[in-house]
Amino acid sequence: MHPSRQARIGNMQASATPLMYAIQDVPGKGKGLVATTDIPKGTRIISEKPIFAVGEPVETELADRVTSLSQHHRGEFLSMSNIHPFNDYLAQWVGILYTNALPVGSKLDLSGIFITACRINHACDNNAAHVWHNDCNRLTVHAIRDISKGEEITISYLGGAFDRNERQEELQRRFHFTCSCQLCSLLSQQSIESDLILNRINEIDNIISDEAGLGPRGINRTPENLLCLIEEMIQLWDRHDHSPNPVGLAHAYYLAFQITKARGDFARARVFADRLVPVRMTFMGMESRYVREHRRLRHDPTVYKFSGVSMQGLTNLDEVPFGPWWHDLEAWLWMRDLGVYEGVTVQNWLNDVY
Ligand SMILES: [Zn+2]
Asked: Could you tell me the distance, in angstroms and rounded to a whole number, from the CA of residue 312 to the centre of ligand 1?
């Protein structure tokens, strides 16, 4: 193994100690993780390998995996909760797996069991986020906002932005519980406002992720419309929470990076990569392959393997308008008014900054 990679993986393991949590009974939730110290945003709380992982159909491998576990690990697995009915050992193990597993593998298509991370309960306004790192076969959990001593550490079992009814239906269908987190407990008017924002974020995501939006024709035809939607998405995340969800923000900046980079608009792609890195680092850690890749791309997005899908928006790396007012850069970046910037003097603004 390359020494630098060994060092990164070493960091990933070492930074998980000392423990910042205790596994305790949480009222109404069974076991859960509770912070035993104040945990600042961006802190890695857990770095853990699975005791096993299986793919679908799980029945094929599960019996072998469970019977091969050490006595300690088997005891931990069997002590996990099970919301599914069963009438034999295999059905019980499948039930425990489906109740507790977290997605792992290069395509996140495997179910992994973790002694600690699987004890973390769900909240729709989660204060931590889990990420699978395929290159070192580990799952990390980072604080995505400041967590106070005594507060329960929570992750989201759902991906994306959903309104309260959708969240409750999905949690009931998949995990058989009713969520009573702060977001689900908002008073009526606040809850309606939250739902409107989350539904709009979801709607924008669908428009952009749709083939018509991200396909080559969509990119060439409407880049300013797509960036306008992404800027709205970021503003909505800001409005939704005083401490915006970095996972949602990273998704938005990554979409903007993809759209501009694919048009050959390397100047804007570089700025979006630069904004993406610190947000991703919050919940992935600086050793993450994705963070390392985008740290490289913020210096030169032309090295990206899909660069140059289209050159209709071609800009040079340093072609960023320089002005005394910050909003000038923002207006250029988001293509708010293309006409204003025609013929504008460009300087090596980024070279001064980096
Ligand atoms: Zn909730």
From this structure: 44
